[in-house]
Design brief:
Elements lengths: L12 H28 L4 H17 L1 H8 L2 E3 L6 H14 L5 E5 L6 E4 L7 E5 H6 L2 H17 L1 H28 L4 H49 L2 H16 L3 H7 L27 H16 L1
Parallel strand pairs: 2-4
Antiparallel strand pairs: 1-2, 3-4
Helix pairs in contact: 1-2, 1-7, 1-8, 2-7, 4-6, 6-8, 6-9, 7-8, 8-9, 8-11, 9-11
Length: 306
């Protein structure tokens, strides 16, 4: 789960350790939750396992297409966006990594994201709002940030970790329906259904809460790791800092309605879709504060200067 063997992005042991820990803990909770469903709803367990397993595999395998469609992105050719492709080409050559597919989302909110289960199946996307607002060096800083997510493989981890909490809710609905519709002794079924209707939703909420907190902790660290790796690769932390400041300020000015539509995907964005008022609350934020990110980039700048 560290940076790709063929990438020149700086490996981050702290990020690798956090990804392994997050996946282990969420996987442990998820297995326990599935076991609870099987015990409580014996008649429904084949349906639960089959559907939940199928959803999980589909989400992981098609994560790039699912995310692109959800965020309104479409893939673009070098002829359509020569400057964007040129910047990605230069950075991939500098990082010695395979070039991901390039996409653009027709959205005035300045932002970017990366998705995909591995570097060979990755997609890097920017919004038209970002392209309009950033200078070439600032854009390269943002693209390097997103490419570092691909190289470190934390995109796949976030995709899986975030989906498991949602999957727990889907499994709950499947299990309760299957358990109540199962055959056998009616009194026994009624009793099992009553117990299940209390315990299963409660367990589902616990799974979701644990997944939510663990992914938030991982997300904040991975953003700092991506900033650091991008600044070190390009050698221009000031350009990335300028892009961060500009993007964060512009996002705060986007209409609240548009921000709310984008907020479910905040964990994947370069900067969170938050208004100035919402940005003040950091307890459950997917990103570290702008001040933290800028302070780290100043530190990287000092290190490069030395």
């Amino acid at each position: 789960m560290s940076a790709s063997r063929h990438s020149r992005f700086t490996p981050d042991r702290g990020l690798t350790g956090r990804m392994v820990t997050t996946m282990f803990l969420i996987g442990l909770v998820y297995v326990g939750f599935t076991g609870l469903l099987i015990v409580l709803l014996r008649g429904a367990w084949p349906l639960v396992v089959l559907i939940s397993g199928g959803l999980f595999v589909a989400q992981f395998w098609f994560s790039d297409r699912i995310t692109e469609r959800a965020m309104g992105a479409h893939r673009v050719t070098p002829e359509q966006y020569p400057q964007l492709h040129g910047a990605v080409d230069r950075l991939c050559a500098l990082a010695d990594m395979p070039k991901p597919r390039v996409a653009v989302a027709d959205n005035d909110m300045p932002n970017a994201f990366a998705t995909g289960r591995n570097p060979q199946n990755a997609v890097i996307c920017v919004t038209t709002g970002l392209l309009r607002r950033l200078e070439p060096e600032e854009l390269e800083g943002v693209l390097a940030h997103e490419l570092s997510h691909v190289a470190h493989r934390d995109v796949a981890v976030m995709t899986v970790a975030g989906f498991l909490g949602v999957l727990a809710g889907a499994m709950t609905r499947i299990a309760l329906y299957g358990g109540m519709m199962g055959g056998g002794n009616r009194n026994s079924n009624d009793q099992n259904a009553a117990i299940a209707m209390v315990l299963v939703p409660l367990a589902s909420m616990v799974v979701y809460a644990i997944s939510f907190l663990l992914t938030r902790l991982l997300s904040r660290y991975r953003e700092l790791a991506a900033d650091r790796a991008a600044a070190q690769l390009t050698g221009r932390p000031a350009a990335l800092a300028s892009a961060l400041t500009k993007v964060t300020g512009q996002i705060a000015a986007i209409p609240t309605k548009d921000l709310r539509q984008a907020q479910p995907y905040n964990a994947f964005y370069f900067a969170p879709a938050l208004s100035a008022k919402e940005a003040a609350s950091r307890l459950f934020s997917t990103h570290p504060s702008l001040e933290q990110r800028l302070a780290q980039l100043r530190k990287v700048s000092d290190e490069l200067g030395q």
